[in-house]
Write a structure and sequence with these properties.
heterotrimer; A mainly alpha (about 950); B mainly alpha (about 200); C mainly alpha (about 120); B: about 200 residues; C: mainly alpha; 4 helices
Chain lengths: ~950, ~200, ~120
Amino acid sequence: MTWLVDTPGLYFVLAMLMPLATFLVVLVGSLIAALARRHNYEQVHALVASREVALLTGIGATAVMALAFVLSVVGFVQYESEFRANRQAIVEAHAALAESAPQREKLEALIEQLTDARTQAQEENNPAKVAELTERLKEPRLQLEEILAHEQRIGHLESFWQSARASRWTGTLLSVVQIHPTQRDNPTLGTTLRWGYTVDSLTGLMFVMITFIGMLIHLYSITYMRDELPPSPSDGDSFEYPASSSVTSPSGRFSRFFLYLSLFSFAMLHLVLADNFFQVFVCWELVGLCSYLLIGFYTERPEAGLAANKAFLVNRLGDIGLILGMAILWTYCGTLDFERLYAQIRHPLADAHQTPGKLAGAIVRAEQKSTAKGQQIVVSKPGEGGNLVVLFPERPLGETLTEPQAAELKRFRQALHRATDPAERARLERLIAAKDPSIDHFHNLGPNRVIRPRGDRVAEEFGVMPYGLLVLAGLGIFAGCVGKSAQFPLHVWLPDAMAGPTPVSALIHAATMVAAGVYLAARCYFLFTPEVLLVIAYLGAITLLLGASLAIVANDIKQVLAYSTVSQLGLMMLAIGVGGWTAGLFHLLTHAFFKALLFLGAGAILLATHHQGNLQQMGGLRHRMPYTALCMLVGVLAITGVPFTSGWYSKDAILSQALGYVYVHREHAFLFVAPALGVCLTAFALFRLWFLAFVGQPRNNDLYQEAQESPWPVLLPLGVLAVMSVGVAWSQTPWDVHQSFLRDTLAQAQPLAVAADFGTGHAVLFPEVAAKPAERSETAWGEQWSDAAGLLAFLALLVGFLLALASYGTRALDPQQAPASFPAVHQLLVQRFYLDALYDRLLVKPTLSLGRALAWNDRVLLERGSDQLAWGGVHLAWGVRRFDLHLVDGLVNGLGSLLFRIGQTLRTLQTGYVRTYILYLVFGVAFLFALLLLLITQVKAR
Amino acid sequence: MTLVAVLFWILAGFTALSALAVTFTTRIVRSAVWLLFTLAGTAGLFFLLGAEFLGAAQLLIYVGGTMVLVIFGVMLTASHPASSLQTNIAEWSLALSVGVLLYAVLCVVLFSVPAVTDAPEETSRSLLASKYLGSALLGNSSATPAAWLTGFPSEKPLPRTRVHYLLPFEIVSIHLLVVLVGAAYLARAKRRPETKP
Amino acid sequence: MIPLLAEATSSGWITPIGLHHYLFLAAFLLVCGLVCMMAKRNAIGVLMGVELVLNAAAINFVAFARYNRTFELEGQIFALFVIVMAAAEAAVALAIVLSFYHQHHTVDVDNARELKG
């Protein structure tokens, strides 16, 4: 087990592999069952496809998820402790270094003075003075060494954490997949794809959340899906099952459910663990596949299949952008790893001397200008734009040396070779390190610095990429998130996805899969330029309002929850867009708990009402199901952000950040109005749901009579989640909305880029260095105005609650009045803003007609066209044959007849007369004699 | 004009005219007679040239033997005394033109060779006597004249090698035998094909 | 080109008899013989042409023997051979002609057309 201790990151890997193991086992089992049925091994089949084995599958899957949860918790705890310890040490070292800065300056000045004096004394050839000065130099140098030791210590700590993280918390699962075979130890850009994992606070938290909620939902599903179990031999007549029973037919679907659920869990965990886009994309598609399989789980319902198709296709639309973004990044940055991309796109924190960069964490833009030395790439000032983005070297190096610098370096090296005094050696080494570009040495970039990128992108050199393409990459990746997280305009699949079983809706479409989009947006935050962030914020805001408004008029219980999920996801995206990275992810985590709770509660209601989910048919159910009603109430309170629930902390964080953003950018006031309005609408919609379901007179008596509390596997998760919905965000002081353990843990994972874009520099290490002045920092203003934001949110909540109470709780207001007064608005909402119809008209119908046209094309061309083609071929063959006959044969025959004619002609020479032959003979003789004469005269002439 | 020249011109003219007559007469017997005169003229030329043996041999063999043979042949193959096989003018002209062409070429060849004449004191020299011819034919190479090789441009002319002609003599003898046998066979009486009644 | 003719014209046709005279004569006899062979339809006529040709050759040989000391022996020997061979050949030819006459009942050479192509 030492390897587990040495590489604790494997905890998470193991946790991720557990559901995969379940998946494989269930798959093999189903294969055995299918093969047994095929080859008529009835007993084996009956055994494997029996009710007991199916139940065992469910329980086993739950146990495995529980084990994965335990592993995740262990890993998370270990990670957090190591991380905090290291962080603390670095902070202390930085503090010590900062403290000693003035002393260091004095010492350096003194040393310089003494050294100059000594050099002068050497020139004057005064050995006594030289010795005296050398003596005096010793003391300051020692003191300087101590101070520099801090610097070294920071470097040591950081490199230790880097290497420790690299070996302990990150890893390569498979060997490098090389597209171009290059040296394995030094892969250059654009040539290698790695398969690996990386752990940080965000990963840990996501793991814990996913495995926890997954475990609860597995437990819940055992009861919820009991209708899908194969019949036991004692079951006689109660259900009509088809004769065959296999994993694929309805009566054996229980195991299949857990098969898909396990695959989904594995894919989701892997997505969160992945450290590069490639793996994320693979798992992205895999979760999309599982979503498709699970939405369409009830194969006998046509709307389930259609909804599954819709979900998958709409997801794929978003994936176009994702692939585009990945392609752009691969082309310019040559890598898909998040860490390496971050290192390239954002300015590093500090240079080789641990001096913090003014532009640390920012996207540095440059412009190609024609200067006195020709066309050069010059770094722009932070405010003004530039059409290029500087890509930083991954292993930062200095510029190449000029001739005098190289000569100086050589002298230093020679001096180092000769020097024996350790202090002298240290000094020379420092000087060499300062000037040698082959040692890791990076000086911070500032405005008007000239960079010289190479033509081919190499990891050790600067590069540039067009700014527009970075924007496009960001938009593309966000498009993927839009598809996955059901933002406007790709939100249309989520309401329809409620056709799947409720545990699926709880796990996938509330807590995890739709969260994957937000997670990716958070991970890729560093890619997003201000334009992209604005787009994210606005789309989030629009989605927020859209979802909340559609939830008001929905009548199916799961639809209401689906729309509210859409709305909350919009809120998370809005948070990321306005700089609340931590706030958005915080809300993601809390939302997972209370949304899962709400869905599971809805499932409990559906179980009680025999899967009849129309809110208008329910009423007063709290008398029949008090426990469920209480848990649902907790969930509703959490989602609306009532104080002391987890939702309160996260919503407050988001709203304060939004207010701060709007304060700095007055023109984007919508970005605060929307969430505030959203809070009101959400409150109204959710309380309406609760009141309609649990309060008042029952509208359907049969339903009411048959409703009862569900068994304990349903109630236990509800209870646990209710507790978590309230307490997951608490700190030691729950009444302080700014204090939260969860939030602080999340803040550890926040990239520097967020602080550079919206805050005031690195909050922990270099708070005095800021890319933005304090009065322009959105985060600072948000913190200042957070009380106001909280108050506004509470007021909005109150308004919504009172309206709902009035309309549906006490029936003081008639809920039918509003639709009657605003019929157009009501119709708009009921028709889902006509978006579905629009998509149908714009995309679906043209595609279908194109398909029909192509099918007609094929049919007609196949029949007539290929016929024509065949006949054409036949005619061509005939023509060729004629050609053959006439030309080829004619040629050959003509040749033959020509020869024959020649022969005939020559034949006449053979007259048969002897005298003719004698004539020829004499003629020949005469001819030969003449020839001979000619030759002889020629010879004689020479 | 010396005697040699006169004799030459008479004999040469006689021979040439006889040869022409051989060619141009139509009747075969007359042609044979003119051939006889041509051969006699040739023999005379041999005598003039100093090859007495050869002239005698010519008269003996050619005139005495071959001409008899020819006359016999004429007589044996005569089909009709009056019929004579005529050649038409076209064939004559063709033959004559080719012949004239050949004669022209030969003349041109002859003209391009330098002239050779006797030394004045040797105008009536006789060639080697028959005894020398006979001994050379029988294998004695001492009869070879001690003369210089011609045709070799040299300051030091080479004496020619000594040869004898025994082998050709024997070959010719065998050849004559063969000819005798062959001619006898060829001219044998053949059985006439049986004519069916 | 023609040293002899030049000499002849300059000396006014008074010239000693040399090799050329005999050679010209021999050539003349040769051509006559060939013409005879080409033009005569009677087989015996063709034979007579052959005799003329061979005679021309003999005259050539003896002329060279006379005017070139080196070939004194050769000329005569070969002329002798020519005469002998001529006789042999005449015998054979006549045998052939008789055979031909026996078959075709005529000595017309034009009847021997079996080789017509």
